[in-house]
Amino acid sequence: MQTTESKWSEPGYLTCEKRWIYFALITVAGFWGAYTYLLRGNVFCNAQTGNVVLMGLALGAGKWKETLYYVIPISAYLMGAFLSELVPNPVKHRLAIRWDTLLILVEMLAVLFLGFLPDSAPVQITQVIINFVASMQYNTFRQAEGIPVATTFATNHIRQIGIGLAREVKRRHTGDYSHREKLFVHLRMLLFFFAGASVGSLFAHRMGGRSIWLTLIPLAVVFVALLKADLGEEKDRMEQKPAGH
C-alpha cells in the first residue's frame, strides 16, 4: 500500500510545483511585507484585506479622496489576478517557456526598478507594483506538490497548522499520521515567511529602499531552475498543467 510520504514524493510534479520553489517565493513575500511596511507607507501589499478595511474606514469618516485612493491598489491586485488567468496558455504556445517562468522574470524586473526609486518617491508606486505582482504570484503558484498553499501571505498557513494540530490530537490513538505531511508543509511555509520578514526588517533599516534588491537572489535561483526545466527536461511537458490550475 502506498504511504502518504511516498505519494507526495513520487516523480511527476513539474519544477514549478516543487516545494523548495514555494519556500523561496514565500520568503520573498515575507521580505516584501516588511519592506513595504517599514519603508513604503506602513502597509502590507501582499494581500488586500487591509486595503478593503481602510477603504471602509475612510468612507465611514467621509474622507472621499482617501476612499477613492484605495481603489487603485485593489484594482492593481484585481488586474494581476485577471492577467494571470488569461496569459498562461498564450505564453507557452508562443514562447518556449511557461507563464510561471516568465512571471518570475517580471518580478525580478519589478524588484530591480523599485530598488532604483529614491526614498522621496511616492510610496504609492511601490505599493501598486507589489500589489500587482503579488496577485499574479498568488494566483499562479497554487499547489506545492499537491498541497494547496499561498505564497504571498501567512493567514491560511496559520489556519492549516491549527487544523493539523487538531487532527494530531484526534488521531493520537489511531496510528493515522497522514495529516502530518500537510501540517509540516504549512509549518515550513509559515517559518519561511517569518524568516523573510525578519531579514527584510534587518536590511530595510540598514540599506533603505535598495534592500529590496536582496530578493533578486532567491528569485534568480527560482528563475534559473524554471528556465532550465522549460528548455530541458520538461520541454515535452509544456501542455501539462500544474496542479490546481
The portion of residues forming beta strands comes to under 5%
Q: From the alpha-carbon coordinates, what is the Rg to the nearest angstrom?
A: 19 Å
| Number of distinct beta strands | 2
**Sheet bearing the most strands, described?**
2 strands, antiparallel
Please state the second-level CATH architecture. Up-down Bundle
| Mean pLDDT over all positions | 90
CATH topology: Growth Hormone, Chain: A
Q: How many helix segments?
A: 11
Q: What is the percent of helical residues?
A: 55-70%
User: What class would the helix/strand composition place it in?
Assistant: mainly alpha
Strand order of the largest sheet: 1-2
Distance N to C terminus: 29 Å
Count of all domains: 1
Shape, please? globular
**Low-pLDDT ranges:** 1-10
State the name of the first-level CATH class. Mainly Alpha
Keywords: Membrane, Transmembrane, Transmembrane helix
Organism: Allofournierella massiliensis
Transmembrane segments: 20-38, 68-87, 99-117, 183-204, 211-229
Protein name: YoaK family protein
